[in-house]
Specification:
heterodimer, A: 7-stranded mixed β-sheet, 49% strand, B: mainly beta, 6-stranded mixed β-sheet
Chain lengths: 114, 111
């Protein structure tokens, strides 16, 4: 199993550009989530999904959109990038969600917005 | 705001010593989880302790949970240089599907 994969590993955007960060898992996990990590800080939850077709907001959802059309994929969209979105983004998944299970994390995407 | 606050923010010890990190949180929880952040590989799960458990062990790791004080501690015994990493606690609050992370403790183990 590849586990949780994220693409790209690095990305530089200009203010106002849009892009999609990809996340995929091959473990048949129902629960997937996106976090951002800023320097010297912990992870903050952006959006999460408890299954295909279901998404919900986390702690810092503004400026980000998600959708979950399949169990395997959970893309994160930045519609109009801002310098405040410069961060490292992590995707995670688990079988039933943090209420029951530990999370498996991807290696992260380092995003810089100029 | 983040659910957990960790103490200390940074910890430096010699190989062979024990490392203790503490985590405090704000609301009632279903469980508390500890993670280590490996360079270039995201976070790796260490231990999950449920709200009805008081102590849990895994190898050189010992986690305690005191729900009355809303706090947890992670003890790494006989530390090694390879244990050097940031460590995070994360809580699964009751009645939510969220996992909320603390600010982390940066552990440095000197050979």
């Amino acid at each position: 199993n590849a586990g949780v994969t994220q693409t790209p590993k690095f990305q530089v955007l200009k203010t106002g550009q849009s892009m999609t960060l990809q996340c995929a898992q091959d473990m048949n996990h129902e629960y997937m989530s996106w976090y951002r990590q800023d320097p010297g800080m912990g992870l903050r939850l952006i959006h999460y999904s408890v299954g295909a077709g279901i998404t919900d907001q986390g702690e810092v959802p503004n400026g980000y959109n998600v959708s979950r059309s399949t169990t395997e994929d959970f893309p994160l969209r930045l519609l109009s990038a801002a310098p405040s979105q410069t961060s490292v983004y992590f995707c995670a998944s688990s079988y039933e969600g943090p209420f029951y299970n530990e999370q498996f994390f991807g290696p992260g995407t380092r995003l810089t917005v100029l | 705001s983040q659910q957990g606050e960790e103490d200390p923010q940074a910890l430096s010890i010699q190989e062979g010593e024990n490392a203790t990190m503490n985590c405090s949180y704000k609301t009632s929880i279903n469980n508390l989880q500890w993670y280590r952040q490996n360079s270039g590989r995201g976070l790796v799960h260490l231990i999950l302790i449920r709200s009805n458990e008081r102590e849990k062990h895994s190898g050189r790791l010992r986690v305690t949970l005191d729900t009355s004080k809303k706090s947890s501690s992670l003890l790494i015994t006989a530390s090694r240089a390879a244990d050097t990493a940031p460590y995070f606690c994360a809580t699964a609050p009751d009645n939510t599907d969220k996992l909320i992370f603390g600010t982390g403790t940066r552990l440095q183990v000197f050979p």
